């Protein structure tokens, strides 16, 4: 699992930061899952080493323009970039109507299936490898955070030892690979866990924006390996954050601390903290690290590989 930040500004783009979008790369299945799609996101793809043709799922947090204005252009370009088999889009109520209006008035025709899923809190996607859960955040419009869970994988099965024990290949191997205990025809009891190497613990990635500090974010982020959380404002501008229902750097750090995450990466910064102003972005990082030391600050095209944790 690898995340690439394609936009880390809030509200409007700046010369160095585009508006919100994060790509989650899943190399083992040659897929990219996109989180939010602010204006200019497809241009950011062109400036990165990501392949637009690998996008298979798009998760939208809420319907403010800096999170969705790039969506229609990206979808239109995807058909010209390699004809994806299908793109599934997840988001709040109203997203489907928004895209239908864009299609109707722009006379755009997709060359591939596009399915929009209106989300409710809970599990919104699951297959044999991943589960995606969404939960409500606290913003001026309905907004959701996302929790991506990579399922645990059993350790490598020791085929040579199994053969020496006289275990016949076939369905029994599949049971043993899952760690099950099997009784052979001769009465011999074989414990699958003893033939498997160390299990690979699945990773957890959480994305929370836009929101003021709320219990929903803490619950969603519990024990995450990486939490990406908005930090629009400095702690000194907390009153403005409460008024606009955005987070300060210290709120993001408090979520990370309360949730017991391994690492916090802040994003969605107000342009007001540009170099030369009384408060700059480095001050927000200092504020957050005073509460949660394992904090980093995102910038456009930052790529972070989520490390695997050792099995308990």
TrEMBL record:
Domain Metallo-beta-lactamase: 202-269
Coiled-coil blocks: none
Keywords, alphabetical: Endonuclease, Hydrolase, Metal-binding, Nuclease, tRNA processing, Zinc
Named cofactor requirement(s): Zn(2+)
Catalytic activity: Endonucleolytic cleavage of RNA, removing extra 3' nucleotides from tRNA precursor, generating 3' termini of tRNAs. A 3'-hydroxy group is left at the tRNA terminus and a 5'-phosphoryl group is left at the trailer molecule
Broad EC category: hydrolase
Superkingdom as given in the UniProt entry: Bacteria
Keyword Ribonucleoprotein: no
InterPro entries per the UniProt record, alphabetical: Metallo-B-lactamas (IPR001279), RibonucZ/Hydroxyglut_hydro (IPR036866), RNase_Z/BN (IPR013471)
SUPFAM superfamilies for the chain: Metallo-hydrolase/oxidoreductase (SSF56281)
Residues that hold Zn(2+) 1 according to the record: 62, 64, 139, 210
GO molecular function: 3'-tRNA processing endoribonuclease activity; identical protein binding; zinc ion binding
Subunit structure: Homodimer.
Family, per entry: Belongs to the RNase Z family.
Cross-referenced PANTHER family: ZINC PHOSPHODIESTERASE ELAC PROTEIN 1
Role played: Zinc phosphodiesterase, which displays some tRNA 3'-processing endonuclease activity. Probably involved in tRNA maturation, by removing a 3'-trailer from precursor tRNA.
Name under which the protein is recorded: Ribonuclease Z
Designated gene of the protein: elaC
């Amino acid at each position: 699992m690898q995340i690439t930040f394609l936009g880390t500004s809030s509200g409007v783009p700046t010369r160095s930061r585009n508006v919100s979008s994060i790509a989650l790369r899943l190399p083992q299945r040659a897929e990219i899952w996109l989180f939010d799609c602010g204006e200019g996101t497809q241009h950011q793809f062109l400036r990165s080493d990501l392949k637009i043709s690998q996008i298979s799922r798009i998760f939208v947090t809420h319907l403010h323009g800096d999170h969705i204005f790039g969506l229609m252009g990206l979808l239109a370009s995807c058909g010209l970039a390699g004809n994806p088999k299908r793109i599934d889009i997840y988001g709040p109520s109203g997203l489907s109507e928004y895209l239908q209006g864009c299609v109707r008035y722009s006379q755009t025709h997709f060359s591939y299936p596009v399915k929009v899923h209106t989300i409710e809190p809970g599990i919104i996607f699951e297959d044999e490898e991943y589960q995606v859960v969404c939960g409500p955040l606290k913003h001026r419009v309905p907004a959701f955070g996302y929790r991506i869970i990579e399922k645990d994988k059993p350790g490598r099965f020791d085929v040579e030892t199994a053969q020496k024990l006289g275990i016949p290949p076939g369905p029994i191997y599949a049971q043993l690979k899952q760690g099950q205990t099997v009784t052979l025809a001769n009465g011999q009891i074989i414990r699958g866990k003893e033939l498997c190497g160390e299990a690979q613990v699945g990773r957890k990635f959480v994305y929370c924006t836009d929101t003021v500090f709320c219990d929903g974010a803490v619950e969603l982020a519990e024990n995450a390996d990486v939490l990406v959380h908005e930090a629009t404002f400095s702690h000194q501008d907390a009153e403005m954050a409460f008024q606009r229902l955005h987070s300060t750097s210290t709120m993001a750090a408090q979520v990370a601390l309360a949730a017991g995450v391994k690492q916090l990466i802040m994003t969605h910064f107000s342009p007001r903290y540009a170099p030369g102003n009384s408060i700059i972005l480095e001050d927000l990082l200092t504020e957050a690290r005073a509460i949660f030391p394992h904090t980093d600050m995102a910038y456009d095209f930052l790529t972070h590989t989520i490390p695997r944790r050792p099995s308990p």
